[in-house]
């Protein structure tokens, strides 16, 4: 009999759509709880050093209030627990059967697999068209085009290599497909997870650690998000800036050439479901 996994992990690069997908999977009907980017929580951020910045509940951060769920007291209880032990603790604490962890790093999956049977882990690979990913990085001024292109390639090579070696079941969700046809994309996700289809309401508040603030526009309002971005700054509140960085002014033709000049990138994009016309 097919049963839902104990741990569902979303992996991929930044800006790949993991936050909006994770919130859509948060479901009382399926007894599954989206916890956000667990690796960014206080204590784990310092211990594993996988992320650039620590994270808190972004919904509560925007509203400038203390989160009633993801509290400092909760983080302290993680103590020296491993990721697997923390997932088990959260399942009991949140009274759920499955946690949906968007830590995004394949290294996080490797840590989970050390103690969790692989049949109890399922992974969803969230991916953004490499051309769009490069543009997101340029807009924020975090990387040059070639740096972003190489990071995209290396991230997904490591993800596919690791999951195939460990024998962990995975499913690919392209961000562009989700945006263009959410219902059809979610049908595939529900089937993969053995979940019952549910309707996601963007107005309902979902408490979760970190994530892309733009995914909460409907929930908390665009004005509140922009005010928070201004108050905290780009580094602490990674919102796609209203005014693009100087790096984003690089010519589109140059950016596209960088993608084709990055060894292995186009073959990898093809394996993840993209066609040449998607990249050009």
Which characteristics define this entry?
single chain; 280 residues; alpha/beta; Rossmann fold; 47% helix; globular
Write the layout of secondary structure elements.
Layout: E1 7-11, H1 18-25, E2 32-36, H2 44-48, H3 58-62, H4 72-78, H5 83-93, E3 98-104, H6 106-113, E4 121-127, H7 130-140, H8 145-166, E5 169-174, H9 175-180, H10 182-193, H11 217-220, H12 222-232, H13 252-261, H14 265-271, H15 276-279
Parallel strand pairs: 1-3, 1-4, 2-3, 4-5
Helix pairs in contact: 7-8
What does this entry look like structurally?
The protein is globular and about 50 Å long. Strands 2-3-1-4-5 form a five-stranded parallel β-sheet, with helices on both faces. The chain has a single domain (7-279), classed as Rossmann fold. It has helices at residues 18-25, 44-48, 58-62, 72-78, 83-93, 106-113, 130-140, 145-166, 175-180, 182-193, 217-220, 222-232, 252-261, 265-271, 276-279, and strands at residues 7-11, 32-36, 98-104, 121-127, 169-174. The chain has 15 helices and five strands. Helix 7 packs across helix 8. With 280 residues, the protein is an alpha/beta fold.
Task: Give a brief rundown of this model.
The protein is α/β, with parallel strands linked by helices and 280 residues long. The protein has helices at residues 18-25, 44-48, 58-62, 72-78, 83-93, 106-113, 130-140, 145-166, 175-180, 182-193, 217-220, 222-232, 252-261, 265-271, 276-279, and strands at 7-11, 32-36, 98-104, 121-127, 169-174. Mean pLDDT is 86; it is low at 241-245.
